[in-house]
Specification:
Elements: H1 6-25, E1 31-32, H2 33-39, H3 45-54, E2 60-65, E3 68-75, H4 77-85, H5 96-110, E4 117-118, H6 119-126, H7 129-141, E5 145-148, E6 158-161, H8 163-175, E7 190-193, H9 198-209, E8 215-219, H10 225-230, E9 239-245, H11 251-261, E10 267-272, E11 282-286, E12 290-294, E13 306-310, H12 313-329, E14 331-332
Parallel strand pairs: 8-9, 9-10
Antiparallel strand pairs: 1-3, 2-3, 4-6, 5-6, 7-13, 8-11, 10-14, 11-12, 12-13
Helix pairs in contact: 1-3
């Protein structure tokens, strides 16, 4: 924002909020000056107009008209990002923009020439109609997708990914560079553990798993007793899936898992034969949104020197895909 006093800064934030609320309902035109004044009737109308005229054009497009200081004001992607940064709930709370780019990216890669995805197709596959439309508009304004058609109350009927969108999506998948650029591969976390630091290993494991909401995946060829001590930190109601090998399974192992399931019933353990084990590390993946690779089996993590590293999105997706196939072929323990 340009230099504004404290009161003007407050009004500017409120203007962006009103503009964002309009965007949630209709993406292709902004809030009218009349509606803006009505929403902000606690402030003097001329004061609101004065601040609106001074809002950085990076955050919103303000249009005047004959006899109107503010005819319409429409929030920009950067304005949405500012609201998000300031703690206001926006579409950036969800990963829909990444899901849309992923879908359009796949279509582009699988077909020759310029291929569009229809709006109905995107909504049918990805869900909520308003959220899809809002995110398509956000991506369009950032020049990551192009839209085509429109009319009948819609600003588009189909969309395709742009070259810029391809580059940004690949940066996200490979290096974790977010949209907007709030995170790079340099911010991926890493921890050096051991030797003789089992408490440090447990604390890191706890910090990862206690945030689980729906599912926790653990992949460890040697998923012995110590792992189940660590899994005590998983919240109740979260589905735990453990993939291990027949190197460690047996009668005593089933008793071990049965004992754990008395405290946490939402657990399933499957095993592969050691000869079919293709995972190159140990992994813990939370809600398929955050994943870590561990350089040592969980059951005695911290006893010797090893590293735990947060997975890049593209690597996490690859491990989850590999896990899904292995899970289908695994033998059930519990």
């Amino acid at each position: 924002m340009p230099s504004l006093n404290q009161q003007d800064e407050k009004i500017a934030r409120e203007i962006l909020k009103v503009s964002y609320n309009q965007f949630e309902d209709v993406q292709y035109h902004g809030v009218t000056g009349e509606d803006l004044y009505e929403e902000l009737d606690e402030f003097d109308q001329d004061h609101v107009a004065y601040v609106a005229e001074r809002i950085d054009e990076e955050y919103a497009e303000v249009r005047g008209a004959i006899g109107q200081r503010v005819s319409t004001i429409q929030i920009s992607p950067t304005g949405i990002e500012k609201l998000q940064k300031d703690g206001y709930e926006t579409i950036l709370e969800s990963d829909m923009r990444y899901e849309l780019l992923k879908k359009l990216y796949q279509i582009d890669r699988e077909n020759a020439g310029l291929v569009f995805a229809g709006r109905d197709e995107l909504i049918g596959e990805l869900g909520d109609e308003p959220i899809v439309d809002q995110n398509i508009w956000y991506l369009k304004e950032k020049r990551l997708v192009e839209t085509h058609g429109g009319g009948g109350g819609l600003f588009y009927h189909s969309a395709n990914i742009t070259d810029r969108g391809i580059d940004r999506f690949e940066s996200y998948r490979q290096d974790g560079v977010g949209i907007p650029r709030t995170r790079t591969h340099q911010s991926l976390r890493q921890a050096s553990i051991g030797p003789n630091e089992s408490e440090k290993a447990e604390n890191l494991f706890r910090d990862i798993v206690e945030l689980s909401q729906e599912e926790l995946i653990v992949i460890d060829r040697y998923a012995r007793e110590g792992l189940y001590d660590l899994l005590q930190h998983v919240p109740q109601g979260v589905d735990i899936k453990v993939m291990t090998s027949n190197t460690v399974t047996g009668d005593d192992y089933q008793n071990l898992v049965n004992q754990f399931s008395q405290q946490h019933s939402d657990i399933e353990v499957r095993s592969l034969s050691n000869s079919n084990w293709d995972f190159h590390d140990r992994y813990v993946i939370r809600d398929r949104e955050d994943g870590w690779a561990w350089g040592h089996s969980f059951h005695d993590a911290g006893d010797t020197q090893h590293t735990a590293s947060e997975l890049r999105p593209i690597n996490r997706e690859s491990i989850v895909s590999q896990f899904t196939d292995a899970w289908k072929n695994g033998s059930g323990i519990v």
